[in-house]
Amino acid sequence: MARSKSRHPREGQAAARRHPHPKAPRPKAAHPAKPQEAKPATAPASRTRGLLLYGSHAVRAALANPRRRCHRLLLTEEARRREGADLESLARQASRSPALEPVERQDLDLLLPGAVHQGIALEVAPLSPPSLPEFLDSLPEGPALVVLLDQVTDPHNVGAILRSAAVFGAAALVVPERHAPPETGVLAKTASGALERVPYLREVNLARCLDQLKEAGFWVLGFAGEAPQSLGSYDPPERVALCLGAEGSGLRRLTRERCDLLLSLPAAGDFRDLNVSNAAAVALYALSQKRLGQE
What we know:
CATH 3.30.1330.30; Alpha/beta knot; 17% strand
């Protein structure tokens, strides 16, 4: 019986290469899940442009201001039930009646993050205040009070000073174009309507402004905690420009040099560290009382 020839191991490997085992079909890959498309922004958020004022007082004052161009009044359902009738009446009387649009509270929260908006917002164009020379040309003869701020940058402080200026009869608030807050919803909300009443003038050069005020007959009073003379012992003239500096640094050198007199506020002791908006309110009140006493 003939012996069968044994195959070399390499021959088996070669055969396997010539006749490979059929590959099992690959399982079809599952289609990847489509990423969720971002929800489109709500209509109010996607179409908002310009400046948004918010809060009842600021919005009411803007609607009543004939110089303010109003575009859209946004109200939540809660705000509409609470005071919508009054706001809609003001909107109809405005020089450019804004469109009234309902808005969800969460959408208004997205538009005004962190703001206490009371469910009310008004889209407006910024005001166009006059330049200081234009303002002085239009100012009537006689007593007048103007406030100047030297690099006060916090919009809450500036808004509070605007509010005090309106209460105590200041004719304008003048700030440098740089190192002062622009017109914003925060400033308007803090001013509680005073932004629509007191011209907010932003000028390039504050030192030049002081020179222009002097030429118009104003006496420039600068406030400094270390000044030896107190406002309480001073009888102001008819026209006063009240100048206050930033907290900490106070009035800058060039501003001090152009002041006719430096005064301090009356204090019971040696602690005189008042917030600048509080100092402005005290000074404006004192000056208004002295002016009333002179009449």
